[in-house]
Amino acid sequence: MSNENYTIPQHVAIIMDGNGRWAKKRMMPRTYGHVQGSKTVEQVCEAAWKMGIKYLTVYAFSTENWKRPEQEVNTLMDLLRDYMKDCIQKSSKNNMRVRVIGDITRLDEDLQLSIRELERVSAKNTGLNFQVALNYGGRDEILRAAKRLAKDCAEGKISAKELDAMQENDFEHYLDTKEIPSPELLIRTSGELRLSNYMLWQLAYAEFYFTDVLWPDFDKKELKKAIDYYNKRDRRFGGI
Ligand code: FPP
Fold first, then answer.
1. If you measure from the C-alpha of residue 19 to the centroid of ligand 1, how many angstroms do you get, rounded to a whole number?
2. To pair with 131 at 20 to 30 A between CA atoms, which of 74, 113, 115, 178?
3. Is 65 a catalytic residue?
């Protein structure tokens, strides 16, 4: 598809699903699928930026993923730990601004420190804005936002009158994605047709693209297919 109306979404959100099945098909442990999956993350970040996508948010670990076997949780945490450290090293080269959304207070102290360090060193980068959703749940994010707002009210930072006049975009300042525009496109791999508690507030008007491709097999070509699909949608935002 190539015409002058072809638009690249500013922000793409991805549910990276199918790592376990990808590994199983190869008679390998599920954790091998996650290792491959994290390599895919790096390739997709590069491809997204080259295509003109400015913001990319991936679902790396949900608030529900703690229920997985301890060994799998540990592997995922180790991969994320390695990823953060590696990204700190590469930060000036890849020019990516990395931020984490989710409640990181439940993560190991050293991982929390790496995350803060990476956010700090990459804060002035001007390339891809890459968000990693980590110990993230959409309901949890909205609840934490409501608690922060209630705290500001209790401390007198917001008056009853101001609370009454509050608009949706004022509330957005309390979400983990403050300063980040909402995604126009959601991609979920591996054929599951669910939102799984991902960016519930932010995806209100997004187009949804589902593909049977398993996450470790997702690549530049598959990303292009998703953008092509997005371009066939007629986005009306409730209008006609
Ligand atoms: C879903 O596949 C995938 C996850 C729960 C983890 C995603 C994590 C990564 C790709 C690696 C680390 C991320 C970064 C940002 C470096 P699944 O295990 O549910 O697969 P299945 O449905 O086939 O079992």
1. 5
2. 74
3. yes
Q: Verify whether residue 17 is a known catalytic residue.
A: yes
- Is ligand 1 within 6 A of the CB of residue 118? no
- Note the pLDDT tens digit of each residue in 13-61: 999 999 999 999 999 999 999 999 999 999 999 999 999 999 999 999 9
Specify the residue with its C-alpha closest to ligand 1, atom 16: 38
Question: How many Å apart are CA 107 and CA 4, to the nearest integer?
Answer: 46
CATH code of the domain containing 188: 3.40.1180.10
Separation between Cα atoms, residue 47 and residue 31, nearest integer Å: 25
Where the chain has pLDDT below 50, the residues are: none
Q: At what angle do helices 70-94 and 30-51 cross, to 10 degrees?
A: 30
pTM above the 0.90 mark? yes
Give the span between the Cα atoms of 128 and 223, in whole angstroms.
Answer: 15
Q: What integer pLDDT is reported at residue 235 of this predicted model?
A: 73
Helices (H), the chain: 19-25, 30-51, 70-94, 109-121, 138-154, 160-164, 168-171, 220-232
Count other Cβ atoms within 10 Å, centred on residue 106: 11
- Write the single-letter amino acid at 228: D
Instruction: Give the structural domain span for 227.
Output: 8-137+182-232
> What is the C-alpha separation between 193 and 191, in angstroms, rounded?
6
Tell me if 79 CB under 6 Å of ligand 1.
yes
Residue 1 in any domain: the answer is no
